[in-house]
Amino acid sequence: MNEYLILFGIVLGINLMPAFGPPTWSVIVIYGLNTKIPVAALVVTGAVAAALGRFLLAHFFRLLKNHVSAKTKRNIAAARAALEGKKRNAIIAIALFALSPIPSAQLFEAAGLSGLPLVGFTAAFFVGRIISYSIYAVTANTIAQSTIGGSFKDTLTSPIGIAIQVAMIALLVAITQIDWEKRLGRRHS
């Protein structure tokens, strides 16, 4: 039972990080290779902890939305209206995001800032993580010689990993600065 709680705590902590966290799948795989916990239990424990961590991260960013400029608030409201107006496109985007290995922190931060409903968003993330973590767990042999410390170090020192995190942060900032009302030809009431 302690192994499950430790795994849950590690994954939850990683997914509460707004940027530069190591990939959760690597922790799950490495943890799985070094314990006797069945892969299915690792995947479910990891997915639940990851979804809860991202959900809490988005809620934290909801608290910050009152501390951004009026212009940024208008831009975020217009982006939210555009997403909510095209449900089909939003569902497709969320499904693709949920299955992708790209960092998800900034997307949850944006969802929190925009005030989007988080339950469905988080549920899609959870399902996507169940699928993707299962795929990674099945291919665990490719990182059989890795360590958790090595994965943390690689994430923090990899030029590609750093560039992706910085790009995602810049994208989040850029999205909040776009005048969505003007771009979409709508006025938000």
Could you walk me through the main structural features you see in this protein, from its secondary elements to its overall organization?
- By secondary structure, the protein is mainly α.
- It has one domain (2-179).
- It has ten helices and no strands.
- The protein starts with a helix and ends in a 5-residue tail after the last helix.
Describe this structure in a few short sentences.
The protein is built from ten helices and no strands. It is mainly α. It has one domain.
What's the layout of helices and strands?
Blueprint: H1 2-16, H2 24-33, H3 39-64, H4 70-85, H5 87-99, H6 105-114, H7 118-138, H8 148-157, H9 159-177, H10 180-184
Helix pairs in contact: 1-2, 1-3, 2-3, 2-7, 3-6, 3-7, 5-7, 6-9
**What is the H/E string?**
HHHHHHHHHH
The amount of helix comes to: over 70%
Terminal CA distance: 52 Å
Structural class: mainly alpha
Task: Specify the overall morphology.
Answer: elongated
What's the total helix number?
10
Average pLDDT, to the nearest integer? 78
- How many individual domains? 1
**Unreliable stretches covering 5 or more consecutive residues:** none
Sheet with most strands: none
Strand runs, count: 0
Which range does the strand content fall in?
Answer: under 5%
Rg, nearest Å: 18 Å
Key words describing this protein structure:
mainly alpha, elongated
